[in-house]
Amino acid sequence: MSSFGSRDLSCRKFSQMASEYVDGTLDPGMLWEFNYHAERCRGCSAFVSTLRAIVSILRSLPFLEAPEELKQRIREQSIQGSGDAGTVL
Angle at the Cα of 27 (from 14 to 57), degrees rounded to 5? Predict the structure, then answer.
């Protein structure tokens, strides 16, 4: 974990905010601190680059509709609740 001053993010906080950054939903007030940290921390910079690449790949995959049988089994189990955690869909 690294820190670059009293205002700066820790690596842990940076990683917690990375999804919001990649999605473009990070609060503008935190964006500056996020970018500041990424410019100075090689590990966090590599982490967010990898996350961006993964998200890009996932977004490029075709959308597949779940089979109706699977949807029905999920509905039935959600109605029953989580009483039997060992049951596999």
Answer: 65
H or E element: which one contains 4?
none
71: CB partners within 8 A, 6+ apart:
none
Distance CA 81, CA 16 (A): 30
Find tokens 């189990």 and name the residue: 77
The pTM is what? 0.61
- As given in the structure block, the two tokens for residue 27 are 């609060």
3-state secondary structure of 76: helix
DSSP class of 7? S
Question: Would you tell me how many other CB atoms lie within 10 Å of the CB of residue 32?
Answer: 10
Are 34 and 47 in contact, with CB atoms under 8 Å apart? no
- Return d(Cα 37, Cα 76) in angstroms, integer: 46
Query: What are the tens digits of pLDDT across the range 37-72?
Result: 999 999 999 999 999 999 999 999 999 999 999 999
